[in-house]
Amino acid sequence: MISTINRHARVCPECGNPKVSHNKEKGEIICIDCGLVLEEKMVDFDKEWREFDSNDTSQRRSGAPMTYTQEDRGLGTQVGVKSDLSKFDRRTKQKFYRFRKWQSRVASGLEHNLREALAEIKRISSNLNLPKVVEEEAARIYTLAAQRGLVRGRSLEEVAAGAIYISCKINEIPKTLNEISDVSGIIKNEIIKNSKFVARELNLKVLPINPVNYINKFASYLELSPKTQTKAVQIIHKAQKEGMTSGKSPRGIAASSLYAACLICGEKKTQSKIAEITGVTEVTIRNSFKEMADKLKLRKEVEKGSKIFKQTKETKKKAVTA
DNA sequence: ACACGTAGAGAACTGGT
DNA sequence: ACCAGCACTCTACGTGT
């Protein structure tokens, strides 16, 4: 989890330097070149020195896990609410009320902003039924943006919606701008504008997914042989070399390459079956396959595969009738 | 049932003004 | 900031095998 959510923050957005220094005492990650603080208020994940159980010699940490979905990352202390104070006498209660008042007063502008924005991110995520990891990533992106002063002069709701959009893309969650716009109440253009701005300033690379990553999963659902899988990967590599994959849906590329590989290896699966598993339509598979077959000269291989498929089908038939 | 083709519409992005 | 244009994908058909 930690490695996932921190993976985008290791290159300095200011000078592009990948060399960063981790100052554990201050809980900061700093660029060695320009000194820019990339991340602050980090948590030390080293061993806990205390022991709470004499029988247990292993050293443990305690408390709830750290989360970016709270402005203090779930690590802060909150002075109790009224119900917690019921057991105290009047004087003690008044003391705690004063503490609470001061706690809210001393909270910085950034903390107030984060509290509002993270609540908004939580609300949008919940309405869109987004996985926890997407909410966490969006919260992390917003927190970094706020720490770098990118929210200043912008509406926090707009930046929050932008963070959600980036997070969905990073985590491969197919949510459309319209859906995010409907739930957040922010117009599409503003979401695009803010997500681009934040991604650029934080040096977040929202790269398209490599279609090869899908092959194993889809092939397993389709119960394809390792030979067909390898062929599909080869086809994708060829297509990538020919520059056929840019701008296209990686799922579509994976689907059509699997379809082609099935035909070539004589392991026929229908377009509708592959479409069902891969989550793209038959039309997308057809169009993409047609382009691949033409540009990568797969026609001959496909014909050969079809012959093998027919032969094996006939021998199976004969075996059954015999 | 499956493969293939087409039309029209929508979503997302890009570039020009 | 706005808009037009573009490439891509989708739905919804019809047709052929």
CATH architectural name of the largest domain: Orthogonal Bundle
Helix content class: 55-70%
Radius of gyration: 27 Å
Distance between the termini: 58 Å
Pattern of helices and strands: HEEEHHHHHHHHHHHH
In the predicted model, the low-confidence regions spanning at least 5 consecutive residues are 1-9, 45-51
Approximate strand percentage: under 5%
Q: Mean pLDDT across all residues, rounded?
A: 75
In this structure, how is the largest beta sheet organized? 3 strands, antiparallel
CATH level-four homologous superfamily name of the largest domain? Cyclin-like
CATH topology-level name of the largest domain: Cyclin A, domain 1
Q: What is the β-strand count?
A: 3
Identify the overall geometry.
elongated
What structural category do the secondary elements indicate?
mainly alpha
Task: Write out key terms for the chains shown.
322 residues, Cyclin A, domain 1, DNA-binding, mainly alpha, 3 domains, 3-stranded antiparallel β-sheet
What does this 3D model show about the protein?
With 322 residues, the protein is mostly helical. It has 3 domains: 2-39, no CATH class; 109-201, Cyclin-like (Cyclin A, domain 1), CATH 1.10.472; 212-321, Cyclin-like (Cyclin A, domain 1). The chain has 13 helices and 3 strands; from the N terminus they run αβββαααααααααααα. The chain has helices spanning 2-5, 90-106, 109-127, 132-147, 156-170, 177-184, 188-201, 212-221, 226-241, 250-264, 271-278, 282-295, 299-321, and strands at 20-23, 28-31, 37-39. It has a 3-stranded antiparallel beta sheet, with no helix packed on it. α5 packs antiparallel against α6 (177-184). The longest helix is centred in the last third of the chain and has 23 residues, at 299-321. Mean pLDDT is 75; it is low at 1-9 and 45-51. The protein binds a DNA duplex (17 and 17 nucleotides) through residues 176-178, 188-189, 192-193, 247-249, 252, 270-272, 280-284, 286-287, 290.
